[in-house]
Design goal:
The protein is mostly helical. It is 71% helix and 3% strand. It has one domain: Up-down Bundle (Rhopdopsin 7-helix transmembrane proteins). It is globular. Keywords: Chromophore, Disulfide bond, G-protein coupled receptor, Membrane, Photoreceptor protein, Receptor, Retinal protein, Sensory transduction, Transducer, Transmembrane, Transmembrane helix.
C-alpha cells in the first residue's frame, strides 16, 4: 500500500528510492508503468499536434490575431509547455519505471508542470470572463482592446508564478508522486506548512477560477436566453442560444473532470496523512489532468468557427 510519505523516503522493504531504479513490482506491476507510458505517449503526440496547430494558425492568419483570441493562444502555449515539460518526461520515466533524471530535474518538472498547468487553468477562467464582458456588457460601452488582452495573459503567468514559486523557497516542496515517475507539490507528508500551502493553492488556483467560470458563463447564458426569448421567431437566435449552452456545459464539465479529481485527492491526502492509497490510484489524478492538454484546444479553440476553418484550409 501507498503511505503518505512513501514518495520521498525509500521504505525499509528493499524498494529502490524514486531516483535509484525501477519501482516495479514494489509500487505496481511493470505493465502498469508501460500502460501509463502508452497513455503519455498518446498525449505527447496529440497535444503537440493540436496545440502547435493552434499557435501556427494564429501566427499565420492576421484575422485570428484579435484581442479576444490572445487568451486562446496563451492557453495553447501553456498546454504545449505542460506537454513538453511534463508529459514527455513522464513518458520516459514510465518506460524506465522510475524518475531517471534525478532530484533536481524532479523539482524543475514539478515546478514547470504546476506553473504552466495553473496558467492553462486560469486562462480558461479569463477566457470565460472576457466573453462575459463582451457579451453581457457589464461595463457599458467598454471596448475590449489589445492592452486588455495582454493584461489578461500577463495575469495568468504572474499569478501562477506567485503560487508555484513558494515550494522552491521552502513552503512545501516538489517531490515524486504516486508511481514515482512524475513530480508535483508535496501533498503527502502533512504538517502545518505543507497543509497551509495546499489549502492556499486549492483556494487560489481551483476555487477562484472555477467560481469565475461559473459566474461568467451563468450570466452569459442568462443574457443569451433573454435575447432568444425576445426574438422567438428568429431561428438564428434560438440556434445560437442552444449552441452556446452546449458549449458552456462542455467547458464546465471538462474543467471539473480534469481538475476535480486532482484537487480532491490532494486535499484528502493532505488532511489524512496516515491514509494508505495504492500508488497507481495516487497517480491517476495527475496523469488524468495532463490529458487536458489534448481536449482543451478541441473544446475551446476548434469549436471557434474562425480557427477551425483556417486550420482545415
Amino acid at each position: 500500500m501507498y503511505s503518505s510519505n512513501s514518495s520521498q523516503e525509500p521504505p525499509n522493504n528493499g524498494t529502490p528510492g524514486p531516483f535509484d531504479g525501477p519501482q516495479w513490482p514494489h509500487q505496481a506491476p511493470r505493465g502498469m508503468y508501460l500502460s501509463v507510458a502508452v497513455l503519455m505517449g498518446i498525449v505527447v503526440v496529440s497535444a503537440s499536434v493540436v496545440n502547435g496547430l493552434v499557435i501556427m494558425v494564429s501566427i499565420r492568419y492576421k484575422k485570428l490575431q484579435s484581442p479576444l483570441n490572445y487568451i486562446l493562444v496563451n492557453l495553447a502555449v501553456a498546454d504545449l509547455l505542460v506537454t513538453l515539460c511534463g508529459s514527455s518526461v513522464s513518458f520516459s520515466n514510465n518506460i524506465n519505471g522510475f524518475f531517471v533524471f534525478g532530484k533536481q530535474m524532479c523539482e524543475l518538472e514539478g515546478f514547470m508542470v504546476s506553473l504552466t498547468g495553473i496558467v492553462g487553468l486560469w486562462s480558461l477562467a479569463i477566457l470565460a470572463f472576457e466573453r462575459y464582458v463582451v457579451v453581457c456588457r457589464p461595463l457599458g460601452d467598454f471596448r475590449f482592446q489589445h492592452r486588455h488582452a495582454v493584461s489578461g495573459c500577463a495575469f495568468t503567468w504572474s499569478w501562477s508564478l506567485l503560487w508555484t514559486t513558494p515550494p522552491l523557497m521552502g513552503w512545501n516542496s516538489y517531490v515524486p508522486e504516486g508511481l514515482r515517475t512524475s513530480c508535483g507539490p508535496n501533498w503527502y507528508t502533512g504538517g502545518s506548512s505543507n497543509n497551509s500551502y495546499i489549502l492556499a493553492l486549492f483556494v487560489t488556483c481551483f476555487v477562484m477560477p472555477l467560481s469565475l467560470i461559473l459566474f461568467s458563463y451563468t450570466n452569459l447564458l442568462m443574457t443569451l436566453r433573454a435575447a432568444a426569448a425576445q426574438q422567438q421567431e428568429s431561428d438564428t437566435t434560438q440556434q445560437a442560444e442552444r449552441e452556446v449552452t452546449r458549449m458552456v456545459i462542455a467547458m464546465v464539465m471538462a474543467f471539473l473532470i480534469c481538475w476535480l479529481p486532482y484537487t480532491t485527492f490532494a486535499l484528502v491526502v493532505a488532511t489524512n496523512k496516515d491514509i494508505a492509497i495504492q500508488p497507481a490510484l495516487a497517480s491517476l489524478p495527475s496523469y488524468f489532468a495532463k490529458t487536458a492538454t489534448v481536449y482543451n484546444p478541441i473544446i475551446y479553440v476548434f469549436m471557434n468557427k474562425q480557427v477551425r476553418e483556417k486550420a482545415i484550409s
